[in-house]
Fold this protein.
Amino acid sequence: MADVLVAEGLSRSFRAGDEVVAAVRDASLRVGEHELVAILGRSGAGKSSLLLLCGGLDRPTSGRVTVAGQEVGALEDAARERFLQRMVGWVFQSPGLLPLFTAEENVALALRLLGRPLDAARGALAAVELSSRAGHRGAELSGGEQQRVALARALVKEPALLIADEPTGQLDTETGRAVLDVLRRTADAGTAVLLATHDPAAVEVADRVLLMEDGVLRAAPR
């Protein structure tokens, strides 16, 4: 199983007034093809900060990140943005759909930004079992349906790495489980999936579970 994400010695600190806050402290992890790795921890533990570093949306104070064999920090800004747009898909706690766009139009937007044919949008919705809702506007969808559209939007560009930050945080237990099942199927199909959550149900679908507390990442006890 080839490694898609390799993060080595990541630290991220920032200044808050007179204090220096360490959000991430010397964290290392790997996520391979077909693998779903879950990071558990309470709010404020540093999970989101770590994901931003792994997905290239923030730069580490120290350490390095490699995605699909490319060291992200070695790329110039424009090349880095293009590379990450192609290779990394994101799903956040809030789906972030355009409310007046249909489900299909929201998914097609990701294809449009990459200059790809738009007809793959319907297939992506079918993969998350939302074909029947393709013509409904974002505002007409339930919370769980909106989150699955967000997943389809992230997956339609066929990223090597999918990063999901608290994707079930605003969902009830049953709906959240359906989203976790989609993430499991995504990993089974070959995508590397990195999930940050405080949802204990994630343990059931993950290949590996890591714990994060006060910016420190460690393996979960067996």
Observations:
- The chain has a mean pLDDT of 93.
